[in-house]
Amino acid sequence: MKKADFGLPFFVDICGMERTELSDLGEFGLIDRIKSKTQIYQNTTITGIGDDAAVIDSGDYYTLVSTDMLLEGVHFDLSYVPLKHLGYKAVASNVSDIAAMNGLPKQITVNIGLSNRFSLEAIDELYEGIYAACENYQVDLVGGDTSTSRSGLVLSVTAIGEVPKGLITYRKGAQPNDILCVTGDLGAAYMGLMLLEREKQEFLANQEMQPKLEGFDYVVGKQLKPEGRTDVIHELREKKIVPTSMIDISDGLASEILHLSQNSGLGFSVFMENIPIENQTLNATNDFNISPVVAVLNGGEDYELLMTFSQADFEIIKSISEISPIGFVTADKNNILVLNSGEKVPITAQGWQHLKD
Amino acid sequence: MKKADFGLPFFVDICGMERTELSDLGEFGLIDRIKSKTQIYQNTTITGIGDDAAVIDSGDYYTLVSTDMLLEGVHFDLSYVPLKHLGYKAVASNVSDIAAMNGLPKQITVNIGLSNRFSLEAIDELYEGIYAACENYQVDLVGGDTSTSRSGLVLSVTAIGEVPKGLITYRKGAQPNDILCVTGDLGAAYMGLMLLEREKQEFLANQEMQPKLEGFDYVVGKQLKPEGRTDVIHELREKKIVPTSMIDISDGLASEILHLSQNSGLGFSVFMENIPIENQTLNATNDFNISPVVAVLNGGEDYELLMTFSQADFEIIKSISEISPIGFVTADKNNILVLNSGEKVPITAQGWQHLKD
Which residue of A has its CA nearest to B160? Predict the structure, then answer.
């Protein structure tokens, strides 16, 4: 690599440079570009960019590192997201990334950017959520940076986890005929977001209005306070089975299926009728007159785990109530959703959502 | 600890809550408050909040974790900070925190928030700086998160490092009569910032003007592209000496002296005449008609190391050109700067600067 030239330019007009729009590249294109130029110098670095967490050799086990940033106005709207829930979610979403490597989280750091709009009481609320998540996942808050922000709340969380070397699970690794499974249920967090956004608009139009969220506590809760599925990781260890590949569902099922497909070089057939969807989620899709397929495939923020298992583990999988088989792995590279009608539709790229929204 | 109550409130008026201003507490007060409520669940967590990096037991060695956030308009001004330098500095400042524990950095993650103001070419510049720092410090970029930002560039970097257990150095640990030392020179980065800010104002007043930075390449370079002093860490290891305490100088010498004092329960006497200051720094203080004492004590962003050594190591310290003895540790808790005139002035709290600026 050519050594970078550090002159002392002044008043660089970044708008005047030759420009290619980031949107031409896309989020995943940008990540691939960053990854392709990255050099590895340390032999302890096992896996860098490109999985749910980085993998570092720590002798007897692997250390896992995952990090996420949450920006006000992009990732959350404080008019309906309580700060306590936000703090909890910021931890849980990183816990989910560690779980997706078949690991357990141990420590977190939290960087926070604050404007003077936030009082000490507001920050206490945020940290109450962070502490509650730390207690639930037995994770230690070990550091962070506090800073002024000129523009709303900024949260950046890094989680450090561990996994025994024999249990590490990557996005790659699926084999033909493996069983595709998912934890919990899908689509709820997205419908929770739709409901909260709808009620916000109603409230802005008429501030006397009370939000109509009765009967939707589960979907709203799933949006505001999701859980990382460390419970499932513990159960897999007790039952002594290891997935052949795994990813967490943060950008919708379609996006994650395509990641598993790209990393394994194989295809996935998914059966809509097997995908677990809560009644509240279905009720909400009815209310909005959208197909549950959309909520499941493109919704995102479920923070459930998508994983593949060898057929040999099928009997054990059936004994785990939180895991549902939803499809299988095929030797060709076609990714297909089989609708309840029997119709087969290709699973196509979504992604970009975080950057576009 | 009482379990957090997660209801589903709606349209929380955070401005309507009882409010205590964050400025009443101060940055260090806020950090102390967060730390005091933190529980530790993992026996691998050796040190959490309150030092330059968190310390995690990894069996044969300690893992170190440090994290920092840089926000546009708070920590940097893109009208005169080139993106390449910014990327380099974001890595170097975290490397400095790892060095301050007597450790060496191994991996980093970089979270980045971008608005559509930034082109791909601009992002490439930023990452060229990040890659250059990675090469210089032999650090692997292993992960990160890319996101839209509604409000300027956001950078959040986490560094993972290692230190042999016998070499770990904390902010605590100084003993009476230990020698206080500093690496490199102080005050340059602050004067570089003053110069860049002055030239920016001149430029805004008259855009025909060329910036007058001749003769100030060192101080401007120290502001725009500081280095973490891993070179000194390597030299300490070669010479087989371990500081009794250490901190990096990011908020000015006064603030760091007070940290060492608070953590050891001892006092520090510092001699202004022994503090290394570059001629360019002195020239700049002349230009601005300010005392070099101000640049050194309150300036910040030097990213040099402040450390204490046992008297027994004095001969070895003298052989290391990058380390200068500047004072000694006293059994009382008074922190005093002895001016060149012989006058003694108390060293008082600064801090808060990052949040106030």
Answer: A65
Interface-testing mutation among A6, A55, A84, A223, with chain B (most B C-beta atoms within 10 A): A6
Closest-CA distance, B122 to chain A, in angstroms, reads 7
Per-residue model confidence as pLDDT tens digits over A39-88: 999 999 999 999 999 999 999 999 999 999 999 999 999 999 999 999 99
* DSSP code per residue over B253-266: HHHHHHHHHHHHT-
* pTM (predicted TM-score): 0.93
What homologous superfamily is domain B23-34+44-167 in, according to CATH?
PurM-like, N-terminal domain (3.30.1330.10)
CATH architecture entry for B179-356:
Alpha-Beta Complex (3.90)
Interface test mutation site (partner A, options B11, B108, B197, max chain A beta carbons within 10 A): B11
**CA distances for B231 relative to A3, A260, B86, B225, angstroms:** 19, 42, 21, 16
Name the CATH topology of A46-167.
Answer: 60s Ribosomal Protein L30; Chain: A; (3.30.1330)
Find residues 53-72 of chain A whose CB sits inside 8 Å of chain B.
53-54, 56, 58-60, 63, 65-69, 71-72
CB A346 within 8 A of CB A253: no
Contacting A residues, span 108-137, partner chain B, CB-CB under 8 Å: 109, 111-114, 116-123, 127-129, 131-132, 134-135
The per-residue pLDDT for B353 is 38
CB-based contacts of B137, cutoff 8 Å, min separation 6? B91, B92, B95, B105, B228, B230
Residue A8 contacts B, CB cutoff 8 Å: yes
Q: Which helix (H) or strand (E) holds A34?
A: helix A27-36
Q: Where do the H-state alpha helices sit in A70-187?
A: 83-99, 120-137
Domain map of chain A by residue range?
A: 46-167, 179-356
Is pLDDT above 80 for B143? yes
